[in-house]
């Protein structure tokens, strides 16, 4: 069954209700927001929007951290795994929130507080990690820089 989601960025969208991510505790700072949908910004870009289904202006840019940060691993507590109804790590979808700095000159990713979603039940939550390796503002390379680096690496090999 489809539901209508109003967004300030994309206008009105029809979203399959069975694809809505439910966050019982809401994201940090937005604990009253409990339901979100994932919107693919453009098919050729890794960025997605985690859009609130009830607040048209509330949306977070998110990425899969594995695409940018080699070796990024998280460990969640048994309690968080239970709240997410996770029985195996393979069922988890890990996303990190991206922030664009002034005039778009810097783009950072919050690796310290990923959003973890059970891909089977679509229960999600933002988890603050107790891992000192990860910061709230890890510099993220622009897509063009990343492609250039990959091409240079491929040529060198």
Written overview of the protein:
With 157 residues, the chain is mainly β. The protein has two helices and eleven strands. It has helices at 78-83, 143-156; strands spanning 2-7, 11-16, 21-22, 35-40, 48-52, 59-63, 92-100, 107-109, 115-118, 124-126, 138-139. The strands form two sheets. Strands 3, 4, 5, 6, 7, 8, 9, 10 and 11 form a nine-stranded antiparallel sheet that branches. The longest helix is centred in the C-terminal third of the chain and has 14 residues, at 143-156. The chain is globular. The relative contact order is 0.16. The model is unreliable at 142-157 (pLDDT under 50).
Write the SSE topology.
Blueprint: E1 2-7, E2 11-16, E3 21-22, E4 35-40, E5 48-52, E6 59-63, H1 78-83, E7 92-100, E8 107-109, E9 115-118, E10 124-126, E11 138-139, H2 143-156
Antiparallel strand pairs: 1-2, 3-4, 4-5, 5-6, 6-7, 7-8, 7-9, 8-11, 9-10
Descriptive tags:
32% strand, disordered C terminus, mainly beta, BH3618-like, globular, nine-stranded antiparallel β-sheet, 157 residues
In short:
It contains 2 helices and 11 strands, in the order ββββββαβββββα.
Please indicate the count of domains.
Answer: 1
- Please tally the β strands and state the result: 11
Measured distance between first and last alpha carbons: 50 Å
The unreliable regions are: 142-157
In CATH, what is the class? Mainly Beta
| Relative helix content | 10-25%
- Principal-axes geometry comes out as globular
Structural class: mainly beta
State the CATH architecture. Roll
Please provide the ordered H/E string of secondary-structure elements.
EEEEEEHEEEEEH
Largest sheet features: 9 strands, antiparallel
The third-level CATH topology is BH3618-like
Mean pLDDT: 86
Number of helical regions: 2
Q: Tell me the β content.
A: 25-35%
Rg from C-alpha positions?
A: 16 Å
The H-level CATH homologous superfamily, spelled out, is BH3618-like
């Amino acid at each position: 069954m489809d539901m209508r989601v109003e967004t300030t960025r994309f206008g009105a969208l029809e979203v399959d209700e069975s694809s809505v991510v439910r966050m019982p505790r809401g994201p940090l700072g937005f604990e009253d927001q409990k339901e979100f949908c994932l919107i693919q910004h453009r098919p050729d870009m890794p960025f997605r929007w985690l859009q609130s289904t009830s607040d048209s202006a509330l949306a977070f840019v998110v990425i899969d951290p594995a695409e940018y940060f080699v070796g990024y691993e998280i460990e969640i507590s048994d309690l968080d795994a239970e709240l997410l109804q996770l029985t195996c790590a393979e069922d988890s979808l890990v996303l990190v929130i991206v922030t664009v700095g002034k005039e778009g000159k810097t783009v950072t990713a919050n690796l310290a507080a990923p959003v973890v979603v059970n891909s089977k039940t679509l229960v999600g939550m933002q988890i603050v990690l107790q891992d000192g390796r990860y910061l709230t503002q890890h510099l993220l390379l622009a897509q063009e820089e990343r492609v250039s680096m990959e091409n240079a690496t491929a040529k060198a090999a």
